[in-house]
Predict the structure.
Amino acid sequence: MSSDLTTVPKGIAGPSNFLDERIGGANFLKRNLRKIFPDHWSFLLGEIALYAFILLLLTGTFLTLWFKPSMGEIAYDGSYAPLKGVMMSEAYASSLEISFDVRGGLLVRQMHHWAALLFVSGMLVHMLRVFFTGAYRKPRELNWLIGVLLFTLALVEGLTGYSLPDDLLSGAGLRITEGVAISLPLVGTYITFFLFGGEYPGEDIISRFYSLHILLIPGLILALVSAHLVLMWVQKHTQMPGKGRTNKNVVGAPFYPAFMAKAGAYTLFTFAVVAGLATFTQINPIWLFGPYTPADISAGSQPDWYMGFLEGSLRLMPSWEINLFGTSHAGTLPLSVIIPALVPLGLVMTGLALYPFLERWITGDHSEHHVADRPRNNPHRTSIGMAAIVFYGVLWLLGANDELSANFQISLNWTTYIGRVLVFLGPALAYIITYRVCLGLQRSDAAVVSHGVESGVIKRLPHGEFIEIHTPAADDIEAHVRGKQAVPMLPVEADGAGIPPKGMRGPLGKLRARMSRAYGGEKIALDEGHGHGHEDEHAAIGSGEDRSLTH
Amino acid sequence: MTDIEHEIEQPDERVPKRVIGTPAPGTSMLGDGEPAARDAEVAGVTYQDETKARKAEKIVALCFTITFLAAIAFIISYVVFQVGSPEKTAISNLALGGSLTLALLGLAVGIVVWVRQIMPKYSLIQERHPMVSDDDTREVVAETFLQGAKESGFVKRPLLRRTLLLAAAPLGLIPLVLLRDLDNSKMPGAKFNETLRHTVWGEKTKDGKPLRLVVEGTGQPIRAADFNSPGGILSVVPEGYQHDLNALAKATLILIKFRADEIKSGTNLNWTHDGIVAYSKICTHVGCPAALYEQTTHHILCPCHQSTFDAADGAKVIFGPAARPLPQLPITVDDQGYLIAKGDFAVPPGPSYWERGDAEAEARAKGGHA
């Protein structure tokens, strides 16, 4: 075994010196090499998205070397026999070429598609983690907004990429995009003609989507991801509550060497999972679908998962259409397209973007937060999040109602009817249930703190009753539970004369006060105790320093 | 910093399955135990046991060797396995993907073992500082801003300010103006919706005859007498436009043969020929081809969003999000008995759009049937 280094080796010292003399890098490194990163499994979710994005850039660049973004018709002359001589676009032909005539082409194409699915999934779960732990609170609202923007861009990026191979399935997605675009009031036909270069499908859309997909949107995503990471770096990561962790410090492992190595390993894990999926799990076998024609479609056409909720909401909608003026040349409002295409997406995205600001308005909380909330400790927020998940989930599930119907032998029409009810009922139920579960979990926390945990020691009391002796919770667990802070609340109480405080007097003010009272405050105080059982009989085990709960 | 405290920082690593509330391993049930001997030179850095680390080093080395071998296997596979047919591509994909996965996984696992078993355990603490700058700094910035504004003359010289705004406005419009020719048809914008109202079924062939209905795929014209089994269905495109996707996106038909007594009042009988009815195949919801047909119920179903139309009754909507029936195409036969279009659709086929208006009323006003 070689001995440890005592001086920086020449190979590193030389270039470092060169750089430092020119850009003063040592100052930056002095501050940042040992930057502390707190540890929690849920902090790794966003990294999945980051590494998937890197993989998307790598595999995507490879694909561009062969892909031809052209809708020019050619007769297929590649090595996939069943399509020989078939007329198709150059885009589709080159996608087939990548799949069958380039070694590793199919692997990279499948990796690209899997990485895209993982990219959006990673962003979604990361966003949920940030939401449920309140990590979007001051000072991180800007980073939250960047995240919402990134998520939206990722959906557009996915949509444009899905359309590029120009097979029958990708064309079906494009047709739906056109149907939605043309339904927009006033501007629909103009948008469609400008987007497609004339009537659908035209000969331009693939090359246009191509430049959006490989240049404009990834460029924006790259810029925003960089800003996202810089802000995270500057503001330092939030940490979970625990022993020694306060709002004024950060406890964890240093960037160099531990976090750096972990991040490297995690990158490789993400790559390996994607490579494994691409090896063993077929995705989007475009050669089976054939070239796109607006005259055909295959049954069971499904979008990628992240578009499923839009598909579901389109399927769910009743056939509403309004003719505003009753004339024959203007005023058609196809509500059965506009509402499902815009409202759920708009609700979710606007709700996400505004949430930090609405919460601050309701709680009046202007302080900085660096310790994450446990979801149970802000029950209304958690319930709102769960309601949103169920809303999204029902729409998403209904996006596959034909599959549900086929696999579970349910009438297709009934899946829709049930879905129409569930999309409203589900979120309401989720809200109520989640709220109760959160309070229940808070109670159990309070019991751990004030009552202790079961020690496993059974004691028989003089009158014959058996009880289990409780012992104080371990320090770390107790610190974790005691990290709870009451949700801040506005000063809503009326003064002695019954006059509500300033700003709470008008109708909006009253609403704000009511919401603040409901949303904020301590629901279950930690030291309230358990309120039942053997008041004085929980005799201590062992020494007299027992602080178990003899209240 | 004791070992026990250290447990707190890495609960998921060291104590994977501890039930909440239960004491950490090694904690005395009778209050706090003695702090474990400290191994670290720096507070918060706990070095690993050297024997464990030595064992881990071997595992890491094994992992890295696996990566080395797998990467070599990838290169060999690239040379050995050729692509071409689906079968050969599948084998190549398996060999390349398998070795790549293994190579990445080996490196990933190796580094994780390295970090967890060889590098020290950390529980370092860093102070946070409020993001807000201190008052002095803010004041200096504000003063500097005002000073700069004054020096620039922006506030004092309104002419400069106003002409600058004037200059910026049209300059900002240039990128928008440049986008006008995105529409390659070069039509005036007001004409866009006119083109949506018409399909090629209103056109004539070169020798002035109406267009024949031809079978999608084969391009064969359809002799009415041959299309005679009730319940039969064909996907039909206009003669001469089999490869014109723009034409197909509006003009594709679904052709159904009924027994005379099956047809209900919603269908315009004048536009049928001998029980043969032609509907637009383009769904009136968002334009997917409504390609599925159930013979027993006469239901046409769009696989995208499951709009369902009753083919026997003018393709009226009986389920799903589509708001309007599939438009019916007037058909007849030419002198050789082939099916032809009598004219264009009376109303625009396909998805609704703002300028579509009440096209049905317009068609009725012209004396037609919508």
